[in-house]
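Quick one: Transketolase-like pyrimidine-binding domain-containing protein from Companilactobacillus farciminis, structure tokens please.
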Amino acid sequence: MAKKTYIQAVTDALDIVLEDDPKTLIFGEDVGKNGGVFRTTQGLQKKYGEDRVFDTPLAESGIMGLATGLGLTGWRPIPEIQFMGFSFEAVDQIAGQLARMRFRFDGLKNAPVTIRTPYGGGTHTAEMHADNLENFFTGVPGLRVVMPSNPYDAKGLLISSVESNDPVLFMENLKLYRSMKDDIPDGKYTVPLDKANVVREGNDITIVAYGAEVNEALKVADSLAEKNISVEVIDLRTVSPIDTETIFKSIEKTHKVVIVQEAQKMAGVGAQVASAIAEGAILSLDAPVGRVAAPNSVYPFALGEDIWIPRAKEIEEKVNEILNY
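--- reply ---
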């Protein structure tokens, strides 16, 4: 057991799956000798060879076309899209081809592809480097979307994703890469897909969050605990499909809920959670569903990030509003 950053936990997971299964392959822009733009794959080409960890041309549609073909022919590819904004170039390969393969072949073929990509604000990157595009991809049938909020989950969820026989979009938060550490067990462990985690128990109100916003929600829970307000925090971990059972169970206890996401508010994960609550748990509520999200605008340039990304202050204001309803 050692304390490791989020990015070290991801590298750990990749090392384990490459060692476990000779059918796993890593490829993408600069992932080989250079170890990736964030050094996530550093040392893996030297350890496993250029046939299993290799660079590709700067063409995301080509990367995903290769991944789809390999996935259908018995391989277990782990392609990297260098920044999530670049995935616009590969939408047809992901949504129009890869995600529908199981349906297309009537369940007779799988496409076990795990697409890794960094996303999220807070590091002042250039345009197209920080976009939160889970709103796009959670609407794609056949594609699982995973968004870990901490190093422990990042390692366990990535191993589970690679071992899954379905295509997975694995989103790694840029700001979390080197800003937090966890105790990470040596060797292999898994965290189950499709299962939310109650990261803090409480009785007065539920906050549902995912990705980096889980950590903002925990700050709010700490702050309100000093005022004897007990906040339950749920980390969705997988945002498609969503574990509504855990959310409903929490609302039956707290009777109030606030949903938090870093992405734009329109038609996103938070909207889907709110809709599910309206359909399945509305009689348990004593107040309207609260929501905190980024504005419905294009992702801002670097200097605008600090006022665009939802932070603990905005979450706490919304929680107080719902508590006092």
